[in-house]
Amino acid sequence: FTPIWCMSFCFSLALSNFNSFVIRTNTCGELRSAHVGQEVTLYGWIQYQRQGLFLVLRDFQGLTQIILPQDEAHSHVKKLLSNAPVESVVRVTGIVSSRPPGQENPKMPTGDIEVKAETAEILNSCKKLPFEIKDFIKKSEALRMQYRYLDLRSFQLQYNLRLRSHIVMRMREYLCNLHGFVDVETPTLFKRTPGGAKEFLVPSREAGKFYSLPQSPQQFKQLLMVGGLDRYFQVARCYRDEGSRPDRQPEFTQIDIEMSFVDQAGIQRLIEGLLQYCWPEERGPIVTPFPSMTYKEALADYGTDKPDTRFGMKIVDISDFLRRLDIQFVQNALSYPHGTVKAICIPQGVKCLRQQCITTDAVCDATFMKHSFPGWCLSDFPDSKIAPSHYLPSLLQCSALGNLRLESADLLEAAGLVLRDPTAFHFLWVVDFPLFLPKEENPTELESAHHPFTAPHPSDTSLLYSDPTKARSQHYDLVLNGSEVGGGSIRIHSAEQQRFVLEKVLKEDSEVLSHLLEALEFGAPPHGGIALGLDRLISLIVDAPSIRDVIAFPKSFRGRDLMGNAPDYVTPEELEPYHIQVSWPLAERGKEKL
Amino acid sequence: FTPIWCMSFCFSLALSNFNSFVIRTNTCGELRSAHVGQEVTLYGWIQYQRQGLFLVLRDFQGLTQIILPQDEAHSHVKKLLSNAPVESVVRVTGIVSSRPPGQENPKMPTGDIEVKAETAEILNSCKKLPFEIKDFIKKSEALRMQYRYLDLRSFQLQYNLRLRSHIVMRMREYLCNLHGFVDVETPTLFKRTPGGAKEFLVPSREAGKFYSLPQSPQQFKQLLMVGGLDRYFQVARCYRDEGSRPDRQPEFTQIDIEMSFVDQAGIQRLIEGLLQYCWPEERGPIVTPFPSMTYKEALADYGTDKPDTRFGMKIVDISDFLRRLDIQFVQNALSYPHGTVKAICIPQGVKCLRQQCITTDAVCDATFMKHSFPGWCLSDFPDSKIAPSHYLPSLLQCSALGNLRLESADLLEAAGLVLRDPTAFHFLWVVDFPLFLPKEENPTELESAHHPFTAPHPSDTSLLYSDPTKARSQHYDLVLNGSEVGGGSIRIHSAEQQRFVLEKVLKEDSEVLSHLLEALEFGAPPHGGIALGLDRLISLIVDAPSIRDVIAFPKSFRGRDLMGNAPDYVTPEELEPYHIQVSWPLAERGKEKL
Description:
The structure is a homodimer.
Chain A: E1 39-50, E2 54-59, E3 62-67, H1 75-83, E4 89-98, E5 113-124, H2 141-146, H3 148-151, H4 155-178, E6 182-183, E7 201-203, E8 209-212, H5 218-226, E9 231-239, E10 251-260, H6 264-278, E11 292-294, H7 295-302, E12 315-317, H8 319-323, H9 328-335, E13 342-345, H10 349-353, H11 357-367, E14 384-386, H12 399-414, E15 427-431, E16 436-438, E17 446-448, H13 461-466, E18 475-480, E19 483-490, H14 495-505, H15 514-520, E20 527-533, H16 534-541, E21 568-569, H17 572-575, E22 580-582
Parallel strand pairs in A: 3-5, 6-9, 11-15
Antiparallel strand pairs in A: 1-2, 1-4, 2-3, 4-5, 7-8, 9-10, 10-20, 12-13, 13-14, 15-18, 16-17, 18-19, 19-20
Helix pairs in contact in A: 4-6, 11-12, 14-15
């Protein structure tokens, strides 16, 4: 049987009684030498059985070896249990005994004992599995998702879901019990926010009118502050319709927090305390306060606003060095205003990446969009690979080098180097984001870097009115090992300033937000908050390859539930109360008759 | 100022620190004589102010009296605070002082002290309110909902939301920490369940395919049991599209629970323990175990399956008494097979309800659908009102008398009698429901009394196959003071039995549930559960007239958000990715151009 099942859940609370309200006397992970001689009743799944001699019974807590009776008087018990297929659910009552000397299994918490079955009952027989549970992990993810209820029986998913539940409970204790936060539920049937192109629509019974499933409780949490709630939190279900994107889910969960009369440092200290309080002991301690880096520094040093600080290979400016050399295309680049050449130094790059040169070139080609030059090494920069940043004076251009840095790290690790300690957790605050960014489709117009409710940096308030492109915001991101796990800001609480941002800077119709603007006029307190992406955070803590591994019933990357087959066709009659009809694409006309 | 604000929240945890991470030194409900001499910084709303002498500052925790400085050196502070409109948000820093002798306010927790302001800051001014906050309760509910963020500042809503948060936290502690339950989030984007006519639809980007917002996590929680989770709970958001119905919400919350290897008594004891654990001290103790009553008894004695057992006036059978009298239409009724005449005895009915005779007659007319006879009194039944049950031999007909019983109770209480102690909480289990009921639209066909996953009563398993109409179920309802606050059942865990119910009894296409049927074949454990209606439960605990009073942002009874104006129109372009278009009712064509 799978040895991984011998592990127990370190985070299980000693206080918890798993046997209350049920007839079992013990779980399958509980029995020890101290129980020898007791009559016990266990319920579980047959994990394994051997030649009518013994079987291994499994439940969520562990495994217990059951010895089948061999005497004539109990022949029906032996027959019953021997004939039950693997993964059948059974009740076994029997006496706890010491295992014969030499047969103890020290890797198994219950490895000192076995239970001699006296009576048994097959509660539900299992039909032949389409695969063996223990091999499940090797199966295609589609198959695992189709039979999710079987996958959930694996140690790994049980562990992930139980740890998730435990961490969230600890977060609640910290927020609610220790710091006076109020858990308030906010609506998920609301209306479109401006620019809410990624919001699912829900047709109502009023012709032409739709609810929208919000991407976050942003408006509601601000209104709760206006309502004097003072400290709000919610484990909030959020929705985002992004079509097909890898490792995104159409519904996801965030730890949503908002406070009145708080500044950026207040929120940061709160979150550091929160994470320290809920952090699972088995992952080692985390140190607070977390380091902080400005957006500008992050882009300059790491080429990204979510730097993975577990390893170096920072971006360095080699313009001054190169200026001395007579390389024509480099000199060309440097002759532009603000022209620079930047590089990352890859430790043992020549030794380790010689074979990968073609790969890294491919990375360069892809990330520099053909603006790269071939990889080469300078003797003064041993083991280095030099690549130019695009010469536009925008820090954003560093992202190409940032991508190269991460790709190189992957390649180095594939070559056997340990760059990033898999047990290390590097939290980082990234601060001082710009308030606005040029719109991708039309760079002469501005859009909010995060959302229009973000307050300007206290030092940049006058810039908001004079030169908004230069204004920094009071937005902060929380980064863990190179992934964004949270983000928040101090919000605008002045109606006048909010109206200016919406109408004058963003050129948006503020009418759809009139309720919020009006609320700000009725004594809205200064406030700010943050949201932590729970799925991502948990997946990093348990080192899962995907957030799908920390969600009980995830959707496929196309947004489908492969177990229940959702979304699905509905009849025209079912659409009628909602006053909608399907506009079939030409190729699919007639399909509605299916 | 409103005296109700002088109350404090009894359930506030002594451990909670409301001043962490912010600059204030204290909340407005905290200061006592012990603080005299300290310099404090408070943040809050101006509740009231008087002639430049003092003002009352309010936050979520209470009120503090602030004395404005009268000396020349502080004239700017006086001016600032005197000119700030009511409900403006201010910071005040000053020294805590004892109130002058005789000016203490014993009704106010901070009534022994006042704060002498030294510096102050207007953080946000409040424009003229459309009404006074303290009179809010008298305003129309539509106005209160439009300005919900102002209504939230009232003591009552703060109290309701904070108590709700506290009760849910206690529930989590009980389930998660004490009894090993796992908090698992289940999807809200799923697909239609058979007969799910009340499920909102969510169009997907695949033409013609829709998600559905589930009415409960029923399928998922059962699948979690198949997945070996053993003990699941979730504070689950649920959706139900019922159009306009008073005191229903399109989205609501239930405490959703499922356990493996449990029987009905196990779930009942769990819930009793849960409610006892989370019950607010200030509402007095509740006694467990809760009394239990069969569905048959409930209908016979109270004419409803959710009896309000806080008062008597049970239904009695007076057929034998009436058989002796020569009243023709009564004799007619009694001559039918199973013909009976039933009555309720209304204490002091003649005295109290003489004036209301017309009203009760109206009730009779309405509830008996014109089958009633005029109310009259018999000398042998002093103070009684006699009304016949419909003569069909179905217990359901008792519902008319059940309604009359409740209406009469209302009338008696309006007349000054105290029938139902407003501080009493009468919990009751109603059990042994029928498994199936005749369909209303076609009584020869059967439908599930609750849902198709409900297991038959252990004594009635064979009836399921021989005469399903007679089979009782393992469904149980939890009733509090005449309102259903929970319901659950032991579920079918045999695939064969589940298929029989779906295909043979309910004549439904089991294909849409094929994933569940298949799951039952793979070693599904016996399991059962319950769901508590959180909104209703909290509203009963705080004695709120509507569940809207315990929800931060409720919808109107037409399902509208009156603050943000949802649902709302969207453009045809926004519908395009979802391959739907609006079918405008004829009368509204052209409206889409608006």
